UniProtKB/TrEMBL annotation:
It is a multi-pass membrane protein. InterPro entries: TM_pro_TauE-like, TSUP. It is found in: Cell membrane. Its main location: membrane. GO terms for cellular component: plasma membrane. This is Probable membrane transporter protein. It comes from the Bacteria. Keywords: Cell membrane, Membrane, Transmembrane, Transmembrane helix, Transport. The chain crosses the membrane at residues 46-65, 77-94, 100-118, 130-158, 164-185, 197-218, 224-242. Belongs to the 4-toluene sulfonate uptake permease (TSUP) (TC 2.A.102) family.
Length: 243
């Protein structure tokens, strides 16, 4: 903790606030937290610290939407997601810090481009079983390597044309289960240790405050404007990671 400067703490604090907001009000905004954490900490270690905060945020989302879950979708995704997590774990164990940082940046830019393309195309086609396997695998890999599975799975759930509450409930349980599953991998890789937990402990209150603030802000901030801001900031951050 002594090695972190003031700017690093500011970036981590902002990232913690974004985590809380993304779980209770603004799905998809979590990619900005990925950028902030990977900028403030070594890229590989940043995934472990962010994971703990995501689980804290997941607890709020699970409690709020515990009665609206499409269990059939979750059962369909489980095996491809687990395969993606396994591949991502091997990659984290073999890749250098610079490689992980660049992969995080490339993944975020790719997801942003795909999101914008889907919006521009205005496609309403419901993803088939093969697409579900592909989204599940990529979601598992990206969530293990960069905690960036949110945009992938959000696109898939949106494509399934779920109503808002079912979407939020299904996503809440999905990410809570997946994030818990990733903890032993992070410990085994030596990324989640007591030093990282001591840093995260300082940030947990910010996640809690932002989670409650998210419920209050959700009906007051123009969704389109905020989503556009998140996309722009994430793109700038991802480019910074690639340079």
């Amino acid at each position: 903790m002594d090695e972190l400067n003031t700017l690093s703490w500011v970036l981590l604090g902002l990232g913690a606030l974004v985590v809380g907001l993304s779980k209770t009000a603004l799905p998809g905004a979590g990619t900005l937290a990925v950028v902030l954490f990977a900028t403030a900490l070594p890229a590989r270690e940043s995934t472990a610290g962010l994971l703990v905060l995501l689980i804290v945020g997941d607890l709020f989302a699970v409690w709020m939407y515990r009665h609206t879950v499409d269990w059939a979708i979750l059962r369909r995704l489980i095996w491809p997601v687990l395969a993606g997590i396994a591949v991502g774990s091997v990659f984290l164990g073999l890749a250098s810090d610079d490689a992980v940082r660049r992969v995080i940046g490339a993944i975020l830019l790719t997801l942003l481009a795909f999101t914008l393309w889907r919006r521009r195309r205005g496609s309403t086609m419901k993803p088939g079983r093969l697409a579900g396997y592909g989204f599940g695998w990529l979601g598992g890999f990206t969530t293990m390597v960069a905690n960036a599975g949110g945009p992938v799975m959000s696109l898939y759930l949106l494509g399934m044309r779920l109503d808002v509450k079912t979407f939020l409930g299904t996503a809440a349980y999905f990410f809570f289960a997946i994030n818990l599953f990733k903890v032993p991998f992070q410990i085994g890789l030596g990324l989640l240790d007591l030093q990282m937990l001591s840093i995260v402990a300082v940030l947990v209150p910010l996640v809690v405050v932002a989670a409650f603030a998210g419920r209050w802000l959700a009906s007051r901030i123009p969704q389109r404007a905020f989503e556009a801001l998140v996309l722009v900031l994430t793109a700038v951050g991802a480019l910074n990671l690639l340079i």
